[in-house]
Amino acid sequence: MRKIWSVSFIFLLTLVAAYIALKFDLKLGLDLAGGSHLVFEADTSKIPAERRITAIQGVRDVIERRVNFFGIAEPSVVTSEFERKDRIIVELPGVSDTKQAVYLIGKTAQLSFAEVKESSPSAVLMPANLTGADLSSAEVVFDRNTGKPSISIQFTKEGGEKFAAITKRNVGKQLPIILDNEIIQQPVVQEEILGGAAQITGNYTLEEAKQVAVQLNAGALPVPVSLVEERTVGATLGESSVKQSILAGLVGIVMVSLFMIASYRTLGLIAVVGLAIFATITLALYKIIPVTLTLPGIAGFMLSIGMAVDSNILIFERFKEEKLKRLIPDALEVSFGRAWDSIRDANVATLVTAFILANPLDWKFLNISGPVRGFAITLALGIIISLFTGIFVSRNLLRMFVKQK
Amino acid sequence: MILWMRYRLLYLAISLIVIGSGIFGYFSWGFEKGIDFTGGVVAEYKLPDGSVKVVKSEEERDILKNQGAVELKFEKVGPAIGPELIKKTLYALALSAGLILLWIAIQFKSFKFGISATLATLHDSLVLLGSFTILGHFFGAEIDFLFVTAMLTTLSFSVHDTIVVFDRIRENQKKNKEGIYILANKAISETMVRSINNSLTIIFMLVALILLGGETIKWFAVALLIGTISGTYSSPFVAVPILVTWDELEKKLKK
Description:
The complex is a heterodimer. Chain A is α+β, with helices and mostly antiparallel strands. In chain A, 57% of the residues lie in helices and 20% in strands. Chain A folds into 3 domains: 2-32 and 234-404, Multidrug efflux transporter AcrB transmembrane domain (Multidrug efflux transporter AcrB transmembrane fold); 34-108 and 225-231, Alpha-Beta Plaits, CATH 3.30.70.3400; 111-220, Gyrase A, domain 2 (2-Layer Sandwich). Chain A has 10 helices and 13 strands. Chain A is elongated and about 100 Å long. Chain B folds into 2 domains: 4-37 and 78-254, Up-down Bundle (Multidrug efflux transporter AcrB transmembrane fold); 40-76, no CATH class. Chain B is built from 8 helices and 3 strands, in the order H-H-E-E-H-E-H-H-H-H-H. In chain B, a hairpin with a 5-residue loop joins strand 1 and strand 2 (52-55). In chain B, helix 5 packs antiparallel against helix 6 and helix 7 runs antiparallel to helix 8. The longest helix of chain B is centred in the C-terminal third of the chain and has 40 residues, at 215-254. Chain B starts with 7 loop residues before the first helix and ends with a helix. At the A-B interface, strand 12, helix 7, helix 8, helix 9 and helix 10 of A face strand 3, helix 4, helix 6, helix 7 and helix 8 of B. Strand 12 of chain A pairs antiparallel with strand 3 (70-77) of chain B.
């Protein structure tokens, strides 16, 4: 009775997986869909050490806003650090004309303040003689009375004097703060502010306040960035890569299937069914998680197919031996039991390597590379799923088959 | 029963010849380093007449694009990336090798097993590195990011097979108290068909990838193929001989 349940469960699972595999789209990486991978290095040499992290955050934020301005789907902007070198990695799917993108992203952030001059028929913004260079820092503080988050800004000595003059002229008026030609804040001046320290209060959530502080810092700590790496793949190349790898994959699977059937006959056929289930579940998981499929990722998938049949081969070879010693159903169970130790130990070793290649915790002393990560993730997923199909699926299919025999 | 361990010197000779050729290749030609290591620009364009042009400078980018060429690929890597890649690779190799050694040592309750397996993976890494000096010289195979990935994958493949053989030795050890020499011969005989069959399935997939998968991952697949073959060979013919020899030496020293 249990066998029937297990087999029905496998059947149902495969159906669901097949539905998902057909229904959803695969997420393709830059090398398959076309797009650009840009790495900028930030020059933080002029930034005091304790403000480096804030400065990089600011740069990242500024770049992200510029990238979003391009209006492309799912751009990604992340930072990485290795031996005190700060990098910002920008991925732009579908962008192949990178010249303008590089120019726009690479500009140093410009922060300035403006005065509002009332003149008919509408108000005009006049750039005030106060820029990011006059600002020394910005941070989130909590208002002592209300407990609400607000942003505290500190000017340099010279900046403080300019700020005092500007605030004196503009009491009761707005003082827009502009970053990269975009107004990020329009605080109203309550009174003349002396001493070079000011506070922007308002109905901020903590997140919003942090965001404003990061933006102000980006202007206060101008960090020049330069392009150190660019990898652009045109859509044409990506398309042909997809076609080629699908063909290679199919040919490979057919060869493996023929080989398994030729070597193990009926057992081999069951392994091939197991393999088909493996491929379906894997594809479904790629789509659910979703895994961004890259060219090396496809190689990882193909390798994992080779490894998925390995557990079957291990068990079948064992079965050949055990068959001579005991009854067939017993021999089957014993083979599964004995082969499990080596299957587990061997696959854990591969998972360890896949973990290091994927570097999911973003360890700084290891590589963070999209294609390599894609390879490691598909390989690791393949191994985990193959443990399930190689053991659970094959075992139950075999049990059913052996019983009928 | 075949006494595999009788031919240990032969295995040593084979490995020395293969690795020796690699070392020879390294000192004669070195590696064909891709831009991931050297820095620079590599771009590919499909010209209006259908031909593909490879360009190694950034200046021609605009000119070619204006002439109606389609940009297939453009890669520009700064000079700082290469040295970092080497460093990070070494960290990754050391970390994986260390963790795998530890895992085997724990599973088999003996560092002898762990170190023998790790030495076999070192053997495979050297074979792979060496063969790419030769492939680089004669066929222009470059080492790049993906080659590094292939090297780490080889590490795990190699261990994969070794564990299967070691596991047999461990299992047989429980049943009878024959010396490791006999146990090792038995284990190799018992796992040989499985090792070959499994490698064949992986080889099928990789050969399909090499022949049909396109230029971008061709050499990556070749590197994985060499790693797989070497990894399969090194389990019975490098890891086990080291284990057996070690055991014998240990016993001699105790006497």
